[in-house]
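Obj.: predict assembly geometry.
Materials: sequence records (below).
Method: joint structure prediction, all chains together.
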Amino acid sequence: EIVMTQSPATLSVSPGERATLSCRASQSVSNNLAWYQQKPGQAPRLLIYGASTRATGIPARFSGSGSGTEFTLTISSLQSEDFAVYYCQQYFNWPPLTFGGGTKVEIK
Amino acid sequence: EVQLVESGGGLVQPGGSLRLSCAASGFTFSSHWMSWVRQPPGKGLEWVANIKPDGSAKYDVDSVKGRFTISRDNAKNSLYLQMNSLRAEDTAVYYCARHGVGGYWTDYWGQGTLVTVSS
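Observations (raw structure tokens):
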């Protein structure tokens, strides 16, 4: 099973600042990596797939990068609606499909 | 508009059974892999099971093997999860989710249904 590790667990950022979230895989997943955003009481929403392709309707301030075992989600200028929990997920070697433990982005 | 609507959650005693349903609309259901993903209260996401578009292949996580069964009815645009021998650790919000075309990310999710296993 591929283990996904996200860091930090919590990220405190001021509105308008840049946020950088990390995701590490226990073995290479090539570019088979997705990012999701989840707000309290809501279902997750797909942001990025293929490590760097934005999903339909996702603003350009969200960008993904990386391949192999190291991945980054960058939010270039945080808006109020971006404060949420973010999860990465690998779909290279499954079953099982595996998620990281999440990074909570909170207001500083 | 893609819509996924789960139902069937509730309170069940340990060892009991429950069947979750997911009604899909707004897309060609029979063309997509579908998954169930769960989230225990206050915790992260865990993939549970998925099923091929024609139902001919199914996969699940080790913790539910032999207890949960995923199925689908393409004529009814519906996905199901039969859950038997339920345990306290199965308590979670269960989401129905659609896999994207060409990959196993999940591009649409339902609103979830809460399953509580407790005596």
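Conclusions so far: DSSP finds no helices and eleven strands in chain A.
To do: check interface contacts against the pulldown list.
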